[in-house]
Every structure is written in C-alpha cells, then in structure tokens.
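Structure first, sequence second, as always.
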C-alpha cells in the first residue's frame, strides 16, 4: 500500500500560496522592523523537522516519556553552544518565547503581589516588565522607571529612588525601543543597594551581545532572558540563562511551573542558530548591524529628521516624526506601500495616543542579514524622506517600491530559494 502524503503545494494549495507570497514579500521589501530577521536555510530545515513529533517533558536525563535518545542530545547541544556563546553558567532553552521566559523569572523568584521594577512601556520597555495590561502588571506590584526628558536616556536617579521606595524583588533592564547601550553595571549597583535580583532581558540585542557589538550582561545580571528570533537570528523561541545557584529554581519554573513539553524542533533550530553565531562571520554581521543603524541615523538627521536620543548605539532608530508633520501610523502605511516596512511606535513623553503615536521604529538586523551595510543606508534614508514628503502620492510610492525591489534583487535574503 502506498500512503498518500503529498507535498504542501498539493495537500494545501491555499496555505502553500500564502507562504510563497510571503517569501516574495520578504524578498522584495526592505524589512526594517528591528525585532525581525531572516533565519538561514539550515535553521528553517531544523525547525521544520520531525522533531515536532516528539514529547519530552522534563530535562535531559530526567524525562517523563521514553524515546529521548536523540532529543536529549539536541537539547544538550543547544545548551552547550549557548553557554559557550554567552559565557553563561546555566541555560534553559525550553521557554516557548520571550514572554514565557520572562514569566518563568517571576514564578521562580516572586510571590503574587511582590514589588518589581521595570522600564515603562511608553519609554521603550516591554509589556512583561510589569506594564498594567500584562499579567506581570496585574499579579505583581510594579513600578516603572523612564527616561529623562532632556536626553531621552535612562534616568538612573529615578531608577535608584524608585528602587529605594518600592524595594523590588526584581529589577528589569532591557527594552524594545531604546536605541542606546544598556549600562548593566549601574543597574547592578542599584539592585545591590536594595537587595533585588537584576534581570537583563536582551531579547532585542542578543545577537549584538553574542557578536561583541553591545556590552554583555553576563557576570553582572543574576538572570538573563532573551528571545532567540530577533538579532540572534534563530527560530521563534525563548531562553533563560543564570548563575549556577539559581538554575534549579528557574528550571522548575519553566517546567513544570509554566509549560508542558518543549518544542524540540525549535530547540534544534536554536542549536543551529547558536552554532552559526559562534562562527567569526557572526561578529562581522553584528558590527555591520550597528554601523548600518548609525549610518542610517546620520543620513536621516542630515535630511531634517529627529531621532529620539539624537542617534543610536545599537540596531534601532526611533524617529520622532513631529517636525515632518506626519504621525507614525500614516507614515508606516505609506512606507509599507513603498516597500519599506517599519512600525509606528510611541516616543517618550508622546503627546499622541499609543494607537496613533508620533514615532516610527526602524532597525537594520534584517538588512544586515541579506548583506547590506552602511553604503545602502544612504538610499534607504533618501527613500524614507521622499515617501514621507508626499505620503499620499501613489506615484512616489510606486517609483520608490520599484527602486527598493531593484536594490533588494542584489541582496538575496538567507533561507529563501527563489
Ligand atoms: C520581543 C521581546 C519580548 C517578548 O518576546 P515574544 O517572543 O514576543 O514573547 C520580551 N522582552 C523584550 C525586551 C522583547 O523585545
């Protein structure tokens, strides 16, 4: 008997077509959303493998199901590569994504109602650092620090005074729209002063840390959490890393505290991505992300754009579009129509509402992954300027979209075989 097991294109032409169209979209457009990237063909293959078939609740050597001969090896490879990459003492690769990784930290070290401190969402923090619509803001007593109005940088005086006042169990550092380097040592001093654990969430910058393009929190923070799919360029997933003495509590928080079986196909993809990040060319990629962001920022400044903090140290730029007379949302729409994909974003002290804010957030990781660098950013800045000068003009959009496609054709992205 021959089993009928057709390829996706036959089995489900509807989904197959949507995937093909997404491949085209990702090939033809300049993807500037700073949390996005292109994984390699190798990462895609591992992620789309039979490892998705296997249940393996528990940890290597201590599982609740039989048949773990190969899964244990996959998970241990992912762990040992990440340890080597970051210099971490302990690594847990099972969190399903960045948010569950952060929840595991709360579950490991806090009781409901405990005080915690994180960067506020409007200043570029993440929901899971205690913002009120998140479970982390509902089940814990969260306080939020922000940035200074004068220079939009972290206000360490405020961090210290809030820490003294609230005595948080956890202090979070890390964010989603903060274009400057994190001074982990200053957070450490404050955490020590009030007896808090310091948690560095490096979701956005993990690839920069791994590639030596951003200072590392390892050896400073008690716990480091991350996603694996942003600058680190792995599959969608999360990790929690810590000093050895916290390992037991964190592992128990991930499983059985929060999750059931780990996503082994994702673990394999993380192992492959970590292997890629250990190669010397990954440092070159990380350095090129930062050099490109800086070049893009300078080109935009020279065209009269305003950048939050005046520039960038990392992979992202937060544009305050107020001087250009257009809010973030219509700007992001017009740019997308011209083949330039970013996202509208609040800026610190934004006078506008979160659903219709003043800012645009853009970044260079995906462009760097397709081989672009500072030289290409001059064109990107010009196109952004041209489109936003006439956001309703479909002829401008179409011309720019064509020029974007032409540039993109010279930089085929990883993972897409068109
Ligand atoms: C993206 C991000 C997360 C959450 O990751 P998800 O995988 O989307 O749950 C957490 N923290 C920070 C700082 C992030 O940027």
């Amino acid at each position: 008997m021959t089993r009928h097991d057709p390829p996706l294109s036959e089995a489900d032409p509807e989904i197959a077509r949507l995937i093909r169209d997404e491949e085209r979209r990702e090939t033809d457009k300049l993807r500037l959303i700073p949390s996005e990237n292109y994984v390699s063909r190798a990462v895609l293959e591992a992620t789309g493998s039979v490892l998705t078939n296997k249940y393996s609740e528990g940890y290597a050597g201590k599982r609740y199901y039989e048949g773990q001969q190969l899964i244990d090896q996959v998970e241990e490879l992912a762990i040992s590569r990440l340890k080597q990459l970051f210099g971490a003492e302990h690594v847990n690769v099972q969190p399903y994504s960045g948010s569950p990784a952060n929840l595991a930290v709360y579950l490991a070290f806090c009781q409901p109602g405990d005080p915690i401190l994180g960067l506020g969402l409007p200043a570029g923090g993440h929901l899971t650092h205690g913002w009120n619509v998140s479970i982390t803001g509902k089940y814990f007593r969260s306080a939020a620090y922000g940035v200074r109005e004068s220079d939009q940088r972290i206000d360490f005086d405020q961090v210290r005074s809030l820490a003294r006042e609230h005595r948080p169990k956890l202090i979070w550092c890390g964010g989603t729209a903060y274009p400057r380097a994190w001074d982990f040592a200053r957070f450490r001093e404050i955490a020590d002063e009030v007896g808090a654990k310091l948690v560095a969430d490096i979701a956005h910058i993990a690839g920069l840390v791994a590639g030596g393009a951003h200072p590392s929190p390892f050896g400073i923070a008690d716990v480091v959490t991350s996603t694996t799919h942003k600058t680190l360029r792995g599959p969608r997933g999360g990790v929690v890393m810590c000093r050895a003495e916290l390992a037991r509590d964190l592992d128990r928080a991930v499983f059985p505290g929060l999750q059931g079986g780990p996503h082994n196909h994702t673990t394999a993809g993380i192992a492959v991505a970590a292997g890629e990040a250990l190669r010397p060319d990954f440092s070159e990629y990380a350095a090129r992300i930062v050099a490109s962001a800086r070049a893009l920022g300078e080109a935009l400044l020279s065209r009269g754009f305003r950048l939050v903090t005046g520039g960038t140290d990392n992979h992202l730029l937060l544009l305050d579009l107020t001087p250009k007379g257009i809010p973030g949302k219509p700007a992001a729409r017009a740019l997308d129509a011209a083949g330039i994909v970013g996202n509208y974003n609040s800026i610190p002290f934004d006078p506008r509402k979160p659903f219709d804010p003043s800012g645009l957030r853009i970044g260079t990781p995906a462009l760097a992954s397709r081989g672009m660098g500072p030289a290409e950013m001059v064109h990107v800045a010009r196109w952004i300027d041209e489109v936003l000068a006439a956001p309703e003009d479909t002829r401008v959009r179409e011309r720019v979209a064509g020029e974007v496609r032409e540039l993109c054709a010279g930089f085929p992205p990883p993972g897409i075989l068109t």
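Margin note: The longest strand covers residues 115-119.
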